[in-house]
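FYI - complex with magnesium ion, inputs then prediction.
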Amino acid sequence: MIYAYIYITSKNYYDRKVDEYYQKQRKSNDKYSHLFTQILNGLQEIKTFHMLPKLHKKLDRIKSEYSKNYMIKRKYYVRRENDVRFITHTFSILLYVILVLLMIRGTIGVDALVLVIGYFESMNSYLDKTILSSVTIREVNVAVKRISNILNYSSNEMIEFGNEMHENQNGIIEFQNVNFSYENKTIVKNMNLKIYPNQITALVGMSGTGKTSIFNLLLRPYQVDSGNIMIDNINIYEYSKEAYSSVASVVNQKPFIFGMSIRKNLDFASKDVGKQIEACKRVGIHDFISSLPDGYHTILREDGSNISGGQKQLIALARTLLSKAEILLFDEITSSLDPNTTKEVVKVLKELKKNHTVIMITHKPSMMKIADQVIVIDNGKVVGKGQHKKLLEENKYYQRLQK
Ligand SMILES: Nc1ncnc2c1ncn2[C@@H]1O[C@H](COP(=O)(O)OP(=O)(O)OP(=O)(O)O)[C@@H](O)[C@H]1O
Ligand SMILES: [Mg+2]
């Protein structure tokens, strides 16, 4: 009885402790995967806003929290195994001594001795099995190793930066005989174009003609095969990392908003609260944010249950306004917006062109109309340039596109 009581009490104590820290460890694990999914989904924004150092810090924090809980859990786990084994062995030695003494005194016979030892051993073997079953927890080790591998992963494919420190760009973009392919598939073919500041330029063309690829080249995740992309007469690969960080910024059709507060999402571009509010006012989302019970501290959920797609888009737009970038790229931002939000976005774009180079990719004729210059792309080539009205009269491909 005493043995069973001590055994169960000590095992229960350690079990509870192991469970407590296992739960904490799982929570850190969940935080990891959550942040990882977000990072993978928002890769382009992360690069554009240079969020990587901040995200690294956050990952490091979760990593040390995870390791701490894992180590405490391990400690209790090892102590549980050792202490319970110690209790079992002490009691079995005690039992053997008592039984042998009783036999010498003639109180019990050999048959009773064998029987009691047999029962005790089989009880012990079951108890041992129970203890050893918790070995499965060791499998967590594998998960820890996998997470650590992912954390230590770094891409070798970064395109190198140069030394050019010129920071105050005008934002004149020029493609000179640019060729680009993904693996063996040629996407951009001998492209020549010039895009000017203080204008809205629309890139239009059928699906798969290479519009987003042009943005990818400007944002530098991909490099040209041949030809030059110049910004203010300087090749984009000659800019230093610091200088290029204030060159171009992008907003996508499905902008990536982190599952953090509105303020923290804006902090990635600028921590100046006054500027954040000003940017939100400019895109017409400030009143909505203020009406939320937690205002700018509202946590944005990824499933969008507390914010609509259009509102997300406007917050992403505000984040772009806060970045120092001269060149603003918008990839089909209005395609899933309702007409009212689209009107707001058009107002913002017109406002933005006053001190930026604005390029938008669009499939909407109403958006093409507001552009100062429309560049028509077919199969990786420029097949038309000019204003909507003129292209509509003269360009066959553009006419087909409108339909
Ligand atoms: N990362 C990639 N690797 C390989 N091929 C790609 C990659 N991204 C795009 N492509 C291919 O390159 C071509 C051009 O793609 P891109 O996304 O630039 O087109 P798009 O004009 O933006 O089309 P859409 O209007 O549908 O967005 C497509 O055929 C596409 O399948
Ligand atoms: Mg595209």
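The chain has two domains: 2-151, 173-402. Residues 211-212, 331, 361 surround magnesium ion (ligand 2) (CB under 6 Å).
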